[in-house]
Amino acid sequence: MIETAVYDTKPYDREYLGKAAGAERIAWRFHEFRLSSETAAAAKDAQAVCIFVNDHADRECLKTLASLGVKLIALRCAGFNNIDLAAAQEIGLAAVRVPAYSPHAVAEHTVGLLLTLNRKIHQAYNRVRELNFSLSGLVGFDIFGKTVGIIGTGKIGRIAAQIFRGFGAAVVAYDPFPSHDWATANGIQYVELDTLLAASDIISLHVPLLAETRHLINTQSLARMKPGVFIINTSRGKLIDTRALIAALKARHVGGVALDVYEEEEGVFFEDLSGQVLMDDELSHLLVFPNVLITAHQAFLTHEALSEIARVTILNILAQETNEPFLKGTTL
User: Fold this and answer.
1) Domain of 27?
2) Do residues 67 and 119 share a domain?
3) 117 and 259 both lie in a single domain
4) Is 287 found in the same domain as 177?
5) Which end of the chain is more exposed for a tag (fewer CB within 10 A), N or C?
6) Is 29 within a domain?
7) Is there a domain that residue 329 lies in?
């Protein structure tokens, strides 16, 4: 049995990791708290740890894990900005992720957020439950004929772009590594970032969080956008400078914002804070705007995605134990 400490565990993690093929060969130790240098000791006697987006695997934490006998860090997500990869390599810890659990899940949630925000479906739902059948204030717009800007054309960005093309929207895209064959086949045009910002009625973010993408949406880039632009982010919260976004919303330059991620979501997203005072002033401010829709990092949350996360994670944990190669594309 391979001892594996799972941090930041939710009920669906227990369910899907516990029932996936090969799970019986792993001794799961589920912890609801997150991984940090303070909680790393809970991995004592484990050969692997399994972490999520808000766990912190910095140098100090990794050194503690290695001293306890941990050999593998398995991220059950695609993003890896929360692990110090240079330190992991130096210390001798292997690190793997799940790079493409279900791009359809995230792309479909992206479009769902836009439809809900634009057509005010969430507001209409609450009204009808209170027997208010008025249509006042529920006017939206057709996506057909609009220009949608896709920033980042990896697997998720490409699927989102193709869905928007299905609405009859014109789609422009920006990516430093463009896929021209795909774009030509789907009637999508690559343009420079400034051109995309100026031309798009709707902008959707699908890029990883890197040094060069942090605060990609800031005061300057917001100013280049069309008045009334809708912005959707189902990628990483720190792609957007929250203060700049709030200022643009207050100035009515931005027409609507749909977020599944947030710049400082640690300690808030994935938690039940009902009945408590929300201590994040900027998030509290965002929640006041009627033209802002926020979901709590749930774009990945489908049966297919959770099944694939569990499958890839387990196969990589088992591979570490038997000295077999990790699944292709998962090694960091």
Assistant:
1) 2-101+302-322
2) no
3) yes
4) yes
5) N
6) yes
7) no
Count of alpha carbons within 13 Å of 207, Cβ hemisphere only?
26
The domain spanning residue 136 has which CATH number?
A: 3.40.50.720
CA dihedral 272, 82, 243, 150 (to 10 degrees): -100
If one counts the domains in the chain, the total is: 2
Backbone angles phi, psi at 253, to 5 degrees: -80, -35
Residues with a catalytic annotation lie at 236, 265, 297
258: helix, coil or strand?
strand
Per-residue pLDDT of the chain (332 residues; tens, 9 = 90+): 899 999 999 999 999 999 999 999 999 999 999 999 999 999 999 999 999 998 999 999 999 999 999 999 999 998 898 999 999 999 999 999 999 889 999 999 999 999 999 999 999 999 999 999 999 999 999 999 999 999 999 999 999 999 999 999 999 999 999 999 999 999 999 999 999 999 999 999 999 999 999 999 999 999 999 999 999 999 999 999 999 999 999 999 999 999 999 999 988 999 999 999 999 999 999 999 999 999 999 999 999 999 999 999 999 999 988 889 999 899 99
The reply to whether 80 and 111 lie within a common domain is no
| Rounded Cα gap, residues 292 and 242, in angstroms | 12
Cα angle for residues 110, 235, 218 (degrees, 5° grid) = 105
